[in-house]
Write a structure and sequence with these properties.
Elements lengths: L1 H23 L12 E7 L4 H17 L3 E7 L4 H10 L6 E5 L3 H6 L21 H4 L3 E2 L2 E2 L1 E14 H6 L9 H11 L12 E4 L4 H9 L17 H17 L2 E2 L9 H6 L3 E7 L2 H8 L5 E4 L11 E9 L6 H11 L2 H8 L9 H7 L8 H6 L4 E2 L6 H16 L5 H19 L1
Parallel strand pairs: 1-2, 1-3, 7-8, 7-9, 11-12
Antiparallel strand pairs: 3-11, 4-5, 6-9, 6-10, 6-11
GO molecular function, one term: maltose binding
Keywords: Signal, Sugar transport, Transport
InterPro entries: SBP
Length: 424
């Protein structure tokens, strides 16, 4: 009996101790929802307006995908150098911008995730402009989806045209040179030009389509520079002749400006070839300017222009590929792209979105949309820096009359290929 009482007393004490412990120690709660996955997006910012628009788009994405958080980083200085360094160090973002010019090299290095397996019929990849989507294909795989684009078009001062008795824009390069003579003004007849007919940018990014007009090429299949061919020189000759002999065109440095659109806005030239980005710039900076746009005048009876585009690509080493694809598919999907391009800052790479926004009927933007079908993509092989830098330096020399055009281009091509060979 006494032994049973002691057992009962021990049980009561044990229960009491357990009760006190439960009251003083808070047991951890079991989480009912998982924390969102955080993915990193890197790009660059062209303007505060563009940056705010992207941030709003990312907030909309997070609202629709509460399981994913996006950390955005703008890299505005030495962007590609930073990205390449991080890819080597395995610290690259999950998703990042990739310019078409830089795409061939990165696609060849197997550091990008092929997107083919992520595509579904609902995503409708066929809706993208073929010229744009093809810029991000390599070795039968698709590595990027273009977020937007711009071609080049002719901008012209309508009041200057009216004063010169010109009623429509030039449709071919012979007309452009003729118009330039009529639009070039020496008001005081002192030999000092007050306004040039045409503003020229002597850079490969603006001259590549003139090389292609007669069958020339920027690079060969093996990646070597090829712009100094006889066919390639024909298109460039017209640019040099107009600048040197006719003196009806001017470079931005000749008139103290920083761009073709600024030359036009300040009344230094009556015509300039620029990208879609020049429309809001001219409207905001030079509201008094009455300007219009037209397709780039044909050369050798061949339509031509350049197309510049940037894609969203995925880091092949991303630890969150499913979430990264969700972000890419939203930003380049019909809903996200409609929001991104609705302000006219950039043109949609999806045909259906362009139709929805009415850009084919927009008087200022329709020439840019029309040009994408025949535009030359801004690409120059795996090692574009060697090709672009050497061309720009030597072509400028030829423009200034420091050496004949064939000599300048031959030197540029040889130097470019020497550099390429040294880094392959």
């Amino acid at each position: 009996m006494k032994q049973n009482s002691l057992k009962f007393l021990a049980l009561v004490i044990a229960i009491a101790i357990w009760t006190i412990a439960c009251q003083s120690i808070r047991l951890p709660e079991i989480a009912t929802t998982a924390a969102p996955v955080t993915i990193k997006l890197s790009g660059w910012t062209a303007s505060p307006v563009e940056q705010n628009l992207l941030k709003k788009l990312l907030r909309d994405f997070e609202a629709q995908h509460p399981e994913i958080a996006v950390k955005y980083e703008a890299i505005n200085d030495q962007y590609m150098d930073v990205i390449k360094t991080r890819l080597i160090g395995e610290a690259a973002p999950d998703v990042f911008y990739l310019d078409a010019l830089e795409a061939p090299f990165l696609m060849s290095q197997k550091v990008l995730e092929p997107l083919d397996t992520y595509l579904t019929p609902k995503f409708d990849v066929a809706d993208f402009e073929a010229t744009l989507i093809n810029s991000f294909k390599y070795d039968r795989h698709l590595y990027g989806l273009p977020k937007d684009y711009s071609t080049l078009s002719l901008f012209y001062d309508r009041q200057a045209f009216k004063a010169a008795g010109l009623t429509s824009p030039p449709t071919n390069w012979e007309q452009l040179r003729n118009y330039s003579q009529q639009l070039t003004l020496d008001r005081n007849r002192d030999g000092k030009i007050d306004r040039y007919g045409y503003g020229v940018i002597p850079e490969l990014a603006r001259q590549a389509y003139t090389i292609g007009a007669f069958g020339g090429r920027l690079v060969e299949e093996n990646g070597r520079a090829a712009f100094a061919s006889e066919a390639g020189l024909k298109g460039l000759e017209s640019i040099v002749e107009q600048y040197q002999k006719e003196r009806t065109s001017a470079q931005k440095s000749d008139v103290g400006t920083n761009s073709g659109s600024e030359m036009l806005g300040q009344g230094k030239v009556a015509m300039a070839i620029e990208g879609n980005w020049a429309i809001p710039y001219l409207q905001e900076t030079f509201p008094q300017l009455d300007f219009a746009t037209a397709e780039v005048p044909s050369i050798n009876n061949k339509k031509g222009t350049m197309v510049f585009t940037v894609a969203y690509v995925m880091n092949q080493r991303s630890q969150h590929k499913a979430a990264a694809w969700q972000l890419i598919s939203y930003l380049t999907g019909k809903e996200g792209m409609s929001k991104w391009t609705s302000t006219g800052i950039a043109l949609p790479s999806r045909q259906s979105v362009a139709q929805k926004l009415g850009y084919q009927q927009d008087p200022l933007r329709s020439p840019f949309v029309a040009g994408v079908e025949y535009a030359m993509p801004w690409q120059a092989g795996k090692y574009p820096a060697a090709i672009v830098n050497n061309f720009d330096n030597q072509f400028l020399s030829a423009m200034l009359g420091q050496q004949p055009l064939p000599q300048a281009m031959s030197k540029a091509q040889a130097d470019a290929n020497r550099q390429i060979k040294s880094i392959e």
